[in-house]
Amino acid sequence: MEAFFGVVGAISGFFWGVLFLVVLVGGGIFLTIRLGFFQVRHLPYICKQTFGKIFDKGKGEGTVSPFQAAATAMASTIGTSNIVGVPAAIAFGGPGALFWMWLIFLVGGATKFSEVVLGVYYREKNADGHYIGGPGYYETKGFPIKSVGKAMARVGACVAMIYYFPSIATQAVSLIQSAETVGINKYISSSILVVLVGSVVLGGLIRVAKVADKMVPIMCILYIIGSLVVIFANIGNVPSSLILVFKSAFTGTAATGGFIGAGVSMAIRMGLARATYSCEAGMGSAPIAHSAAITDHPVRQGFWGVFEVLIDGSICTMSGLVILTSGVWKEIAPGESLSMPSRAFQNVLGSAGGYIVTISVFLFALSSIIAVIWYGEKLVEFFFNTKISKYTRVIYTLSIMLGAFFGLEAILAVLDLTNALIILPNILTVLVLSPLVVKLTREYFSSDQYYLKDIKK
Fold this sequence. Notes:
By secondary structure, this protein is mainly alpha-helical.
């Protein structure tokens, strides 16, 4: 088994190096230029259409409100990777990994915006009368060579269905390691998670959306406040930590304490992989949630994709500063890196800090797993049908227990490989269909019915 995971890790390393530096960063830069740096030029308007419209029910057709769709996507995007994915990146790739994460966040807004726009544009209604969409739909309908688009959609959906097993297990491991720092047995924490997740996902899309739009704001606020307290307690270490991030990104990091050392290639690999897994820009998962939104134009819902990357990047940065300024990244071995945030919080807030992180990780894991299971169900629905897809709720929920039996490094190896195989066809399709995204974006910003009407109010 160890040899198998070693091979998987080696293949993952090939993808998450120069290849994906070009694919993800290059693709994001290309889309940003094609869209005229809209996420920067129109940032105040985008914030008004997202932050300012959280309680808006939306206009047009759809199944759930724009924020409920975004909250469902954010439940997956803002998961435990925001708390423990960053220390994992630093533990295996050094502080420089945070720089490469920032690079993904910088250009990822345009990528995720494009995915959401295409998801809404090509969405359909299923047998239950709910709107559904995602990569499988815009690859099948939009790719110029129909046979290639259909093949990519089928293969991508098949790999993604497998991918969600290690994805769920990663969230579970995050909770298990964090809970163990406050004395909670791993079988107890994982069993509680199974029961709670099952009680939500068995209720379908409407229940998932309602739980997500209540849970996401609460869990974000709780963790952000705790992180700011820890950062301010170590404020004197912030400048040196930031210098270390930029320096290590291009020179690597020498071994120190519990940290085993890492070169530039590992910093790039871990930074790109963990940032992509965290913000999900390029993965094609967010369009699955956003395709259900009530909206009058694909671009208006696309703004929520930019919003998600902005929030996700901010929380990951806080986690990185918590780990680096507290110095725990030097003290804890990589295999136990998921306990770093809890240790950092405890150093400042005592035992209360450990409970804050554990509660945060629990909420983040719960919300993320709920969203991921719904994504998996929609992929099975695309591949088979609505009736069969509903049975996967139980199968995916039970996969939480995998986190109690497998180590972090093994799970991440499988996660990164399957993630890479999902991203390649999705990014290719998004780039090929970018002229349509540009056309829809220009249409929106030049129309009296949308942008011009809004700014006159």
